[in-house]
Amino acid sequence: MSCLFCGIVAREIPATIVHETDRTLAFRDLNAQAPTHVLVIPKDHQPDAAALAEADPAYAGEVLAAAAAVARQEGLTGGYRLVLNTGDDAGQTVHHLHVHVLGGRPMGWPPG
Ligand code: 5GP
Ligand code: ZN
After folding, report:
1. CATH number of the CATH domain containing 66
2. What's the CA gap between 74 and 92, in Å, rounded?
3. 87 within ligand 1 shell (Cβ under 6 A)
4. Residue 15 needs a FRET pair 20 to 30 A away by CA distance; which of 6, 39, 97, 112 works?
């Protein structure tokens, strides 16, 4: 199976890594939609949040904790948005779970 984000975990595909734990990795989105736009992923392949939560709920918690650590590290004291696009209607293009951490500007609501 060829997976872009597994390639980043394996350091086969370059990325700007900003945070790492035993089981998570965070790197800047190539096409940033906000002053801070970081993707947080589990190092182990899971297609989406539902799959990870079902397989290993504690691991899902680690991904959320890593997202919070990234927000803190990026100085997003005014707030930030976590996005987990799931499936085609949400526009998920990479089928390896990733949490978008978006911040550094006011976020509109509802999203597009
Ligand atoms: P999705 O639409 O699946 O929720 O988000 C996938 C995200 O991955 C997009 O925001 C896109 O810009 C980002 N992305 C796609 N390819 C790469 C890549 O090779 N490197 C990095 N750092 N981000 C990527
Ligand atoms: Zn993967």
Report:
1. 3.30.428.10
2. 24
3. no
4. 112
Whole-structure pTM value: 0.98
Ligand 2 mean position, distance from CA 85 (Å): 15
For residue 45, being part of any structural domain is answered with: yes
- The question of whether 98 is a catalytic residue gets the answer yes
pLDDT digits (tens, 9 = 90+) for 55-98: 999 999 999 999 999 999 999 999 999 999 999 999 999 999 99
Instruction: Please name which of 29, 2, 31 lies closest in space to residue 98, comparing C-alpha atoms.
Output: 29
Q: Ligand 1 within 6 A of 94 CB?
A: yes
pLDDT in tens, 29-48: 999 999 999 999 999 999 99
Hey, CA dihedral for 61, 63, 64, 65, is it positive or negative? positive
Does some domain include residue 84?
yes
